Amino acid sequence: MATISKFEDLICWQKARELANFVFDITDNSQFKDFDLKRQIRRAAISPMSNIAEGFDRGTKGEFVDALFIAKGEVGEVRCQLYISSDRRYVDISKFQSGLALTDECSRLIQSFVDKVKGGSKQGLQFKKIYKPYDQFESLKQYAPDVYEKYYKK
Question: How far apart are CA 50 and CA 10, in angstroms?
Fold first, then answer.
């Protein structure tokens, strides 16, 4: 499996982005009259992709998993706000159903990715062993002093 080097390559982030754009599209409609609900659902819709990105760039497995769970919770908040938006007739039934399907897919993708991250052996960048340049010379000095003397002693 290839190593992912940027959060934009994550399928769960791409789907969260799709969800955010969906929410912005439906709230741009003139029928969406509740300004406070509009602001809240938009903020909630931006949060999943933001949390996935932030967690990815934090560098530790634990922080990444925590951020993924926060992102999943925000998707649930968007789903809840879609219900009230539908109840108030700010969105039609087909858009509402599309939104529910999108939040469901987003939530499942995030959970699936959490399971993969938790099961993986990588601990994150903070735990990566970084060798100091002299470490290799010290071991050479210890285990092959004649080679060390010949090539590195000045």
Answer: 13
Mean pLDDT confidence for 10-38 = 96
Q: What is the pLDDT of residue 1?
A: 46
**From the centroid of its chain, how far is CA 102?**
16
Q: Coil, strand, or helix at residue 44?
A: helix
CATH architecture type of domain 7-123: Up-down Bundle (1.20)
pTM, entire model: 0.76
Compare 121 and 30 and report the one with higher pLDDT.
30
Contact by Cβ (8 Å): 152, 140: yes
- Backbone phi, then psi, for 124, in 5-degree steps? 120, 170
Tell me the domain boundaries of the chain.
7-123, 125-154
